[in-house]
């Protein structure tokens, strides 16, 4: 199927069936608008991988059509992929002031600050193209400057909510319900809406409730307070500053990402702190414990984060002392629960009082629950609905909410990354599958870690490594030394000498047979050694280590001539 002037093509390169790496495309004729360019953090089956970003093959194939990347807000799962994407796709980037400031800092770290033009927009901005016009509306989320995006096309308006909730007592500006209602009144062709909390009933707790809890905790705590939250949760950081100011506490910040957000937040006026209130970390011991607040990263139990190192006693400047209170103002991301509770246990062992979990309103999500999602659907009133941003069960639950408020089931499309939908005033239909998937970032390598490398890493982590070293003279077909077997992570050598000696004897037998046959193909040498040792080790140990044969060739005649 080819896109024609009567259809708008909608697809996701990331963000469907997963939490993270959000990236969506809206395409009409020869123009593509990209919404967000995020990353996600690797799961357990990706050992050694640092980050996961979307595959942008389709956008590179249609590079001339891409008019820009439009950002809904400044969280990593929406902007974190930009340093990698912009190396190959140099297009303008649009976002609100805080979002652009965070992107600029990120690009500077990667030496890409001059690669593309960064454009600040707000809820009043309109970006006009030949066929498309992009405008914005203000939403509430856990970070300031969050925007929904409306793309006007000749076939109708496509609305992307970004991450949102409806907070009637927000920490910042309220959502622009009037603008949303106006979009719905005018008529919306398709709505792409955040599904993260579609399984949760009711409405998401207001930031004001969290602010009240923080104030109460600061009033009760008589020692130092260590406050752990996401670095990007600017509203929460401002609430901590306000409580510290009220109770005469100095504020110290730990963690590079936290320091960066504090600086950017103060520069833009989102974090307002009296002069002299922030102190260097090495000055905290100069103040009484009840006059110190330490804001730190590590709310997800990350091994190298500040709070984790404080908990296990490896931080150079901060150790837990009696009377400390540690506040976790976050909920564990799926997959991080074990690390979080391990850190909490270590903090309790060190003598700290730890406040965490749902017993107090110490954290609230930035994503709308079921009533928030239904309110968005009622305001926008789309003809077609595409749930986005969530694992598959979340997308399904969101689609059922849409049915409850009157969206026709045949007008709801639950997609996977790479699926496309063509929509027009008259009809909608599924289109072709486009290239999509995940690109793995490992150190400075982008996309050079594939299934074979991951399989090898998994094998090494599970069963270890056996290195087999043999030295031969291939001119005279003689065994000069070895076989020597080196074990790493497979068996403890001192207790397995008999096993390794037997393995050496098996390898020696194979080697002598190969020399007798005058076999010169190294591939055959390696395969026959593997074929002999793999079943031997499994039979004796029920383990399958990675076996790495190293065949070294020495020409004795040439060596003698040199001597």
Number of strands: 25
Task: Summarize the amount of helix as a percent range.
Answer: 25-40%
| C-alpha geometry | globular
Uncertain regions: pLDDT < 50 for 5+ in a row? 559-563
Biggest β-sheet: count, sense, barrel? 8 strands, mixed
Calculate Rg over CA atoms: 29 Å
* Distance from first to last alpha carbon: 73 Å
Contiguous helical run count? 16
* Fourth-tier CATH superfamily name of the largest domain: Ribonuclease Z/Hydroxyacylglutathione hydrolase-like
Q: Kindly identify the CATH topology of the largest domain.
A: Metallo-beta-lactamase, Chain A
Give the class-level CATH name of the largest domain.
Alpha Beta
| The number of domains | 3
Q: How much beta, percentage-wise?
A: 15-25%
Q: Which architecture of the largest domain per CATH?
A: 4-Layer Sandwich
Task: Give the averaged pLDDT, no decimals.
Answer: 87
Based on secondary structure, the structural category is alpha/beta
Structural write-up:
By secondary structure, the protein is an alpha/beta fold. The protein contains 16 helices and 25 strands. A hairpin with a 4-residue loop joins β8 and β9 (133-138). The chain is globular and about 85 Å long.
Fold topology:
Elements: E1 8-14, E2 23-28, E3 31-35, E4 51-54, H1 57-61, E5 66-70, H2 76-79, H3 82-85, E6 93-95, H4 97-109, E7 118-120, E8 126-128, E9 133-138, E10 147-153, E11 156-160, H5 177-186, E12 188-194, H6 207-220, E13 225-228, H7 234-246, E14 250-254, H8 256-268, E15 292-296, H9 306-311, E16 325-328, H10 337-349, E17 353-355, H11 370-380, E18 382-388, H12 392-404, E19 420-423, E20 428-430, E21 438-442, E22 445-446, H13 451-463, E23 465-473, E24 478-488, H14 497-516, H15 522-541, E25 546-553, H16 556-562
Parallel strand pairs: 3-5, 5-6, 6-7, 11-12, 12-18, 13-15, 13-16, 14-15, 16-17, 23-25
Antiparallel strand pairs: 1-2, 1-19, 2-3, 4-21, 8-9, 9-10, 10-11, 19-20, 21-22, 23-24
């Amino acid at each position: 199927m080819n896109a024609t002037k009567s259809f708008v093509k909608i697809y996701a390169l990331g963000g469907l069936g997963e939490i993270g790496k959000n990236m969506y495309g809206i395409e009409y004729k020869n123009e593509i608008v990209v919404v967000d360019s995020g990353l996600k953090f690797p799961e357990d089956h990706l050992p050694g991988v640092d980050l996961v970003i979307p595959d942008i093959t389709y956008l590179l194939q249609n590079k001339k059509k891409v008019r820009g990347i439009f950002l809904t807000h400044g969280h990593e799962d929406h902007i974190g992929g930009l340093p990698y994407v912009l190396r190959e796709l140099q297009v303008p980037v649009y976002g609100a002031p805080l979002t652009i400031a965070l992107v600029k800092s990120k690009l500077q770290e990667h030496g890409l600050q001059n690669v593309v033009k960064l454009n600040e927009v707000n809820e009043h901005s309109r970006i006009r193209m030949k066929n498309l016009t992009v405008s914005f509306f203000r939403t509430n989320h856990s970070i300031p400057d969050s925007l929904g995006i409306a793309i006007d096309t000749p076939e109708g308006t496509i609305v992307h909510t970004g991450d949102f909730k409806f907070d009637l007592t927000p920490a910042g500006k309220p959502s622009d319900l009037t603008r949303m209602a106006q979009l719905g009144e005018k008529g919306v062709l398709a709505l792409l809406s955040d599904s993260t909390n579609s399984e949760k009933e009711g409405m998401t707790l207001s930031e004001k409730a969290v602010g009240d809890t923080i104030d109460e905790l600061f009033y009760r705590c008589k020692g130092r307070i260590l406050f752990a939250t996401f670095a990007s949760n600017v509203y929460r950081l401002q609430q901590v500053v306000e409580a510290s100011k009220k109770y005469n506490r100095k504020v110290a910040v730990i963690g590079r990402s936290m320091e960066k957000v504090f600086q950017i937040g103060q520069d833009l006026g989102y974090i307002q702190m009296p002069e002299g209130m922030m102190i260097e970390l090495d000055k905290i011991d100069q103040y009484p414990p009840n006059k110190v607040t330490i804001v730190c990263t590590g709310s997800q139990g990350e091994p190298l984060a500040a709070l984790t190192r404080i908990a296990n006693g490896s931080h150079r400047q901060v150790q837990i002392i009696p009377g400390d209170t540690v506040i976790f103002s976050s909920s564990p991301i799926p997959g991080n629960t074990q690390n979080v509770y391990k850190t909490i246990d270590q903090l309790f062992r060190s003598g700290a009082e730890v406040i965490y979990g749902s017993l107090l309103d110490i954290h609230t999500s930035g994503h709308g629950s079921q009533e928030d999602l239904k309110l968005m659907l009622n305001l926008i009133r789309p003809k077609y609905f595409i749930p986005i941003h969530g694992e598959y069960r979340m997308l399904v639950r969101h689609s059922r909410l849409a049915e409850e408020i009157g969206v026709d089931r045949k007008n709801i499309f639950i997609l996977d990354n790479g699926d496309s939908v063509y929509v027009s005033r008259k009809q909608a239909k599924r289109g072709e599958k486009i290239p999509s998937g995940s690109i793995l970032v490992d150190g400075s390598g982008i996309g050079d870690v594939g299934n074979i490398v991951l399989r090898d890493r998994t094998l090494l982590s599970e069963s270890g490594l056996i290195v087999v070293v043999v030295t031969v003279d291939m001119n005279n077909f003689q065994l000069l030394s070895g076989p020597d077997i080196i074990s790493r992570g497979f068996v403890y050598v001192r207790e397995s000498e008999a096993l390794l000696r037997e393995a050496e004897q098996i390898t020696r037998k194979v080697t002598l047979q190969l020399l007798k046959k005058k076999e010169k193909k190294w591939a055959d040498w390696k395969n026959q050694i593997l074929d002999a040792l793999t079943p031997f080790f499994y039979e004796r140990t029920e383990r399958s280590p990675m076996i790495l044969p190293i065949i070294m060739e020495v020409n004795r005649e040439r060596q003698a001539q040199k001597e």
